[in-house]
Fold these 2 entries.
Entry 1:
Amino acid sequence: MSIKLTWHGHAAFELNINGSCILVDPFLSGNPTASASPDTIAADYILVTHGHGDHIGDTVAIAQRTNGLVISNFEVCNWLQAQGVSRVHPQHIGGGFQHPFGYLKLTIAHHGSSLPDGTCGGNPCGLLLTAEGKKIYLAGDTGLFYSMRLIGEEGIDLAALPIGDNFTMGPDDALRAVKLIAPQVVIPIHYDTFDAIQQDPQAWAKRVQAETLAKPLVLQPGESYSL
Ligand code: NI
Ligand code: MN
């Protein structure tokens, strides 16, 4: 049994775990790098790290079409219910829950979380998922923080970290994050989508390879990796 992870550009992922399809931050329409359509993509679950438009993305439309369960923080879940999303599971930072696909814990992330209409979306989160004997850390939008070391203590098989700079960690801090987390594999995300976050992921990958034990993995939108 394995986990198949597909990057759909920016911070959007699709995880296929034991027959379930789990979307993360499905920003597809309006995303020039998106590799899937919100009109056809499958979703048994949708995980949302925070309220910003480039993360909540097409969550409302996909949830209404698929009837997938949306998991996010309490404030974002309340807002989604007000938009007509009926199936939500609110969690919050530090709290984990055993879902059918795995144990999902929300972590801190240093960022904002206002929703597209200006509603306060609570505090932004990262996602720490334990499934199929693997541990995956999707950092969400965040600056560098030293407690990433605590997350790393759990033994991270795969981490996805923003490298775009401007709104999140840039390449230098993301490299420091890799050193704190010490994941087996690290995927750079949240770059090139907008003018302000243009980066060279291959150059970053070379630095990761030279300075850490982690294996950098630069995916193209639509590309998958199994672990
Ligand atoms: Ni954001
Ligand atoms: Mn973002």
Entry 2:
Amino acid sequence: MATLYIVGTPIGNLDDLSIRAVSVLSNVDIILAEDTRVTRKLLDRYNIKKEVMIYHQHSDLKKIAQVVSLLEQGKNLALVSDAGTPGINDPGNFLIHEILKELPEVKVVPIPGANAAIASLSISGFPTDTFTFLGFPPHKKGRQTFFKNLDTIPHTVVFYESKYRIIKALEELKNIKNPRDLMVSRELTKQFETTYRGTAEEITMRLGKEPLGEFVVVLGPIKKHKIEISDEE
Ligand code: SAM
């Protein structure tokens, strides 16, 4: 029976592809990629010449049926996203779920690689025996509740934010009730990688009005024992 490899790829620095990932990408029959141009760049860097097929968040059931059919024919496949680990705020979970419904005997094998949340947590200095990963805050509906709910999570929290909303997120963090340390990672593994530690006010000042790049926000545990939960909306 065929194997579907879930391959972690770099989050910026193309050197961050594991030797095992190179071997798997070189040996599978077809690579499923979120954006073929992005993946081609990575493959070229490692001189991997391989058929690349698109699989992204808008791929429909017809595309999934095509993937199932390839696995049925015994083709080994690798799924990659544009950056980091597939399935972590990237396409992959639904595909795996649907494949296993049709072909429960298919082997799904992780090839671990970079992940922005874990990379950021690893330098935070905050406890990580327990942490909550929240993906992206909602853009509009539910955004206020997202930030309000942070006061109900006593341990370390990590989430993603885009350059368009990072300043807004920091504004919202100024209003949380319970004091906690804050760290923001910008452009991890890239040329302009920067780590910001301090209060939301301090980090906002350092980022300026129109910050560029990709961001991970990490909040340390709530500092006091009593957790205050606001009941105002
Ligand atoms: N699957 C990816 C992973 O494993 O980290 C996450 C994909 S998600 C669509 C993209 C978000 O991850 C970005 O908006 C940013 O919040 C975060 N991210 C990805 N690469 C990053 C980097 N090099 N530096 C900081 N944050 C990054």
